């Protein structure tokens, strides 16, 4: 089953002004359910803009995009927000955890927005944190955690609503080698359990661990490899 189907995706900022800038120039991308795909490229290649469109954080200027069985371009903002909440998990380089909020509450937050009852979301958050090896740190806020611990909380939060797709933008970029290895092992475990993962990375060694490596250059895919 195809989970992402993009054809002819373009993205132009400041359209119609003297500062108009086209970042994506007609991208075609398909991702099958259960794949582990990496997107690599230099800064300015368009990969982060593409990730924002895949993750429904932004809309393309032109092209077609089907996520699962939904035509994204026909959906309104409310429908996109609901789809994003229920189907997509995000993991970022800078973790994006809420300060002064415990690990448990950080993981519960997406479920709260999705309307999951309090008891159910607490139990699921506890279970996810335990699986991430954070069972003894549930009550600690981000300032009391190491970088690796923060990223494990972030991955647990990304899995809170049982998404079919995880988008990870440089998830090991702020981590040392050993901790980065641990995070990649977690992604492999999630993928083995059926979660589709798209990894944005500058690291060719990490990219080589995925099913497909897509290289972007100047707003288009330059090459595709299967390591």
CATH topology: Rossmann fold
SSE pattern, N- to C-terminal: EEEHEEHEHHHEHEHEE
Low-confidence stretches: none
Q: Please, what is the CATH homologous superfamily?
A: P-loop containing nucleotide triphosphate hydrolases
Shape: globular
- Rg, alpha carbons: 18 Å
CATH class: Alpha Beta
Helix content: 25-40%
Question: What distance lies between the first and last C-alpha atoms, to the nearest angstrom?
Answer: 22 Å
Largest sheet: 6 strands, mixed
Structurally, how many domains make up the residues? 1
Secondary structure tally: strands = 10
Quote the beta fraction: 25-35%
Name the CATH architecture. 3-Layer(aba) Sandwich
Q: What is the overall pLDDT average?
A: 92
Protein name: ABC transporter ATP-binding protein
Organism: Corynebacterium breve
Keywords: ATP-binding, Nucleotide-binding, Transport
GO molecular function, one term: ATP binding
Structure commentary:
The structure is a single chain. By secondary structure, this protein is an alpha/beta fold. The chain has one domain (2-225): P-loop containing nucleotide triphosphate hydrolases (Rossmann fold), CATH 3.40.50.300. The chain contains 7 helices and 10 strands. Strands 6-7-8-3-9-10 form a 6-stranded mixed β-sheet, sandwiched between helices. Strands 2-1-4-5 form a 4-stranded antiparallel β-sheet, with helices on one face. Strand 9 and strand 10 (220-225) form a beta hairpin. Helix 3 (103-113) crosses helix 4 (118-131), helix 3 packs parallel to helix 5 and helix 4 packs across helix 5. The model has no long low-confidence stretch (mean pLDDT 92).
